[in-house]
Write a structure and sequence with these properties.
By secondary structure, this protein is an alpha+beta fold. Helices cover 45% and strands 11% of the residues. Strands 1-2-3-11-8-4 form a six-stranded mixed β-sheet.
Length: 408
């Protein structure tokens, strides 16, 4: 029998009934519904499977196994966070790719700068910015949510926290598209090239903040200390590069799915518009239902899980969408229910690598919903809208045409 690339990507110790061919970065290659593709995988899979795509790796298919992996950083290292491992471009996203004991002092640099107290300091500015954006199109009765709000608001929030110039956004956004959404599909620009460009962009900024620190996020890193010693400049660049990438893409994506759903649920629109106190619960439920990314881990030693042996140096993916769709943990998991007791979802991660920007992301989502529904309490998808989900390292909707009635 002929040897194929797929057969080569299945180690001999992987049971035949655990093998599928499923690309976690492109779950519906035929252009079908992405959620349905994940559900189809869930419905035919055991809790841990092996996929032949992207060089071959394990993946978890339910919440229990996902948490078991994410909470065990000793066996499941974050040194590799994307498949195939040869991709390599995202290997230095500190502190995400650092394991203990190196991880804690790196993470400590961010904890205060991204604390609820720090986020609260910029909330008034965020509200002003959200209102300005909405006022720019409210009287038109329509907008492309992503072009007119979704791409701007999270950027404005992060740039205010980091004290970066807004005119730099267009360049950074182009680089992000290459990394997260295959922006240069012809391969003319690699992930490594883009990561180097991010480093070159940040290097003079970090040097200036080191000499004259302010009260911003980048200054907190550049002028911080690790084990009593000043942060090495290259380490500071790697940490700040991670912050830029995480801060500019994930919240934007979550907003796109949230507003797409809300546009088709007038009852929930009315409830949230009339009861702003329910918005934080809605933010939590939207976060549960629409996780954005996929965590990858690499095994440091052999371990048995779900009756199969995973070996040292294997990769394992934890697609959080499969936790969100886990019917054993969430009744009717596809439905948005803001009164649901979720029991603690994993959309912002779990274990020591839980997202450092969780408080910022939740604040941005809350402010966005409160200010939008105050100004535009009723809206819907434009009838001719063709919604396309963009996949990759993260998942998002890039065009979202909305409409609403304008008071005469």
């Amino acid at each position: 029998m002929a040897t194929t690339a797929e057969s080569l990507s299945v180690p001999s110790y992987v049971p035949h009934d655990r093998v599928v061919h499923f690309d976690i970065y492109n779950p519906a290659p035929d252009g079908g519904d992405v959620t349905n593709a994940w559900k189809a995988l869930r419905d035919v899979s055991k809790p841990i499977m092996w996929t032949t795509a992207n060089g071959g790796h394990w993946l978890t298919t339910n919440g229990e196994m996902l948490r078991a992996v994410l909470r065990n950083h000793k066996t499941f290292s974050s040194a590799i966070i994307m498949a195939p491992r040869e991709a390599g471009g995202l290997s230095d996203l500190l502190p995400i790719t650092a394991d203990p004991p190196r991880h804690l002092p790196l993470r400590a640099l961010l904890n205060e700068a991204l604390s609820p107290r720090a986020i609260q300091k910029i909330e008034a500015e965020l509200r002003v910015y959200a209102r300005e954006l909405i006022e720019g199109f409210k009287d038109k009765g329509e907008c492309d949510f992503m072009a007119d709000f979704g791409r701007h608001f999270p950027i404005g929030a992060f740039f205010r926290l980091a004290h970066l110039p807004m005119e730099d956004y267009a360049q950074l956004a182009d680089w992000m598209a290459t990394i997260f959404h295959h922006g240069h599909s012809d391969g003319s620009v690699s992930q490594e090239d883009i990561m180097n460009r991010f480093a070159d962009y940040l290097r003079p900024i970090i040097a200036a903040r080191r000499d004259n620190p302010g009260d911003d996020l980048i200054s907190a890193v550049a002028s911080g200390k690790i084990n009593g010693e000043p942060v090495d400049s290259e380490i500071a660049i790697k940490i700040c590069r991670t912050l830029v990438l995480a801060g500019l893409d994930t919240v934007m994506a979550l907003m796109s799915f949230t507003m797409h759903y809300l546009a088709g649920d007038p009852e929930l629109q009315q409830r949230l518009a009339n009861n702003p106190g329910d918005v934080p619960r809605a933010v939590d439920e939207f976060g549960r239902r629409f996780p954005i990314g996929i965590n990858m881990r690499v095994l440091t030693s052999d371990i048995e899980l779900d009756g199969v042996t995973l070996q040292a140096d294997d990769l394992i993916a934890t697609p959080i969408i499969l936790h969100a769709l886990d019917e054993t943990e969430y009744a009717d998991p596809e439905r948005i229910d803001i009164d649901r007791e979720s029991g603690g979802h994993t959309s912002f991660g779990a274990g020591i690598h839980r997202c450092a920007g969780t408080f910022l992301a939740r604040a941005e989502m809350r402010v966005m919903l409160e200010e939008w529904l105050k100004a535009i309490p009723r809206f819907s998808l434009r009838p001719d809208a063709e919604i396309k989900v963009s996949v990759g390292f993260t998942t998002a909707i890039f065009q979202l045409p909305l409409r609403w009635d304008v008071a005469s």
